[in-house]
Q: What sequence folds into this?
């Protein structure tokens, strides 16, 4: 038989069983939080119309897209590169079937033609949560509350949600006197503040051709970047003549008030005037979460308000706010910080039932079935000629907690012998009590 070269496309990954179990644990915790907050799941297809996917990002999106074409097919299709555009299309198509406000979550793979590198893949999972149809800052505050709850449930102790508002950013640019055509350069440079510092931002803005006096006014405002409500009050005084900035400040103040009502501790969030978020469709609050200890480990959530996106498909804007949780990044950090629960052993199997030969195979299968009926995850050995010692080694390599022995002597006596692999403890019990005894050993 000719051998086919076994390899993966660049930027794609296989996952071993233990890795999948970790992923399922993370997704399970987050899903439970979503549902606790009253969010509902949706499903959308992997493939979307090309015109749908290009509607938001144009040429920039086209660079990311994996195009998909069936031989002879007439529809121009692509693999989704995020879950936000599909949501906008979904709401426009099903609006009459949805109860507004619509609170959805969606956890699914997406594909992007980025250059593969460490921590960046061409196929990865996104985890989105959104509220559609609420203009109040209460919706934005609730999304932030949900994010802090989910990260806390996963065991993260040190993290901060950075909050800003695109209207305030626009107002800062207007106050500084930056021409509208150069606002993109302004935002891109400010977004790098943590990496290059104020001097670096100043150099980049100068290189972009922004006037020195405009840069000076920007630097004055950025001095207040993380002062919370006090900073907002100072910035409000400086931007008193810029209505869009005052609107953004008012929304941030209201959002902070609602965060307090939701019980989000002040240490969990900060107003950050230099937090930009790169996507151009945001229209109000934006928020991003950073793990802060043991070192600054980077961003794990990002989102904001995008009131105009659904309007691309329905012809009229609809207020929407939401966030993505970086599932891939969160999984890596849980490993790095050793935050997975100890009972997450890397295997689903709790008990291995051994087999002593062809004549006892049926009895071993029957015992495995009884243990499964009692809710115990069980595998029965199906190679009766394999030595018992090898079967025990197999159970140990699998990560099973217990081994059940059912030889001819045990069958005649109506008994089962159970052995816990972690400490070697053994018990022999009547067959009818095997499940109860296994549960006790699993707990110990």
A:
């Amino acid at each position: 038989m000719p051998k086919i070269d076994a390899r993966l496309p660049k930027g794609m990954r296989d996952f071993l069983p233990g890795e999948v179990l970790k992923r399922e644990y993370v997704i399970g915790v987050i899903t439970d939080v979503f549902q606790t907050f009253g969010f509902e799941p949706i499903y959308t297809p992997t493939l979307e119309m090309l015109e749908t996917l290009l509607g938001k990002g144009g040429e920039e999106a086209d660079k990311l897209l994996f195009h998909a074409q069936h031989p002879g097919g007439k529809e121009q299709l692509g693999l989704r590169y995020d879950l936000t555009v599909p949501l906008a299309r979904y709401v426009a198509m099903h609006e009459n079937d949805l109860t507004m406000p619509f609170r959805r979550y969606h956890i699914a793979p997406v594909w992007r033609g980025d250059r593969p590198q460490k921590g960046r893949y061409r196929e990865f999972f996104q985890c989105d949560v959104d509220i559609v149809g609420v203009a109040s800052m209460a919706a934005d505050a609730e999304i932030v509350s949900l994010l802090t709850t989910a990260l806390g449930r996963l065991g993260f102790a040190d993290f901060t949600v950075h909050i800003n508002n695109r209207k305030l950013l626009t107002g800062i640019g207007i106050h500084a006197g930056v021409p509208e055509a150069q606002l993109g350069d302004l935002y891109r440079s400010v977004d790098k503040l943590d990496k290059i510092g104020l001097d670096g931002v100043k150099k980049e803005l100068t290189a972009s051709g922004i006037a020195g006096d405009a840069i000076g006014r920007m630097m004055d405002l950025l001095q207040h970047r993380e002062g919370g409500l006090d900073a907002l009050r100072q910035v409000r005084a400086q931007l008193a003549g810029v209505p869009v900035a005052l609107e953004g400040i008012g929304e941030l103040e209201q959002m902070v008030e609602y965060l307090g009502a939701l019980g989000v501790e002040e240490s969990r969030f900060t107003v950050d005037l230099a937090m930009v978020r790169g996507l151009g469709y945001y229209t109000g609050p934006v928020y991003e979460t950073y793990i802060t200890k043991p070192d600054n480990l980077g961003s794990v959530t990002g989102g904001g308000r995008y009131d105009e996106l659904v309007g691309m498909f329905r012809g009229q804007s609809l207020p929407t706010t939401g966030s993505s949780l970086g599932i891939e990044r969160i999984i890596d950090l849980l490993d790095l910080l050793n935050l997975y629960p100890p009972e997450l052993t890397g295997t689903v199997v709790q008990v291995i039932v051994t087999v002593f030969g062809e004549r006892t195979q049926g009895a071993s299968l029957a015992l495995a079935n009884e243990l499964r009926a009692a809710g115990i995850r069980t595998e029965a050995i199906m190679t009766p000629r394999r030595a018992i010692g090898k079967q025990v080694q197999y159970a140990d390599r699998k990560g099973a907690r217990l081994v059940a022995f059912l030889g001819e002597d045990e069958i005649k006596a109506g008994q089962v012998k159970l052995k816990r692999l972690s400490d070697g403890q053994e018990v022999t019990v009547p067959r009818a009590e095997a499940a109860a005894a296994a549960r006790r050993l699993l707990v110990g």
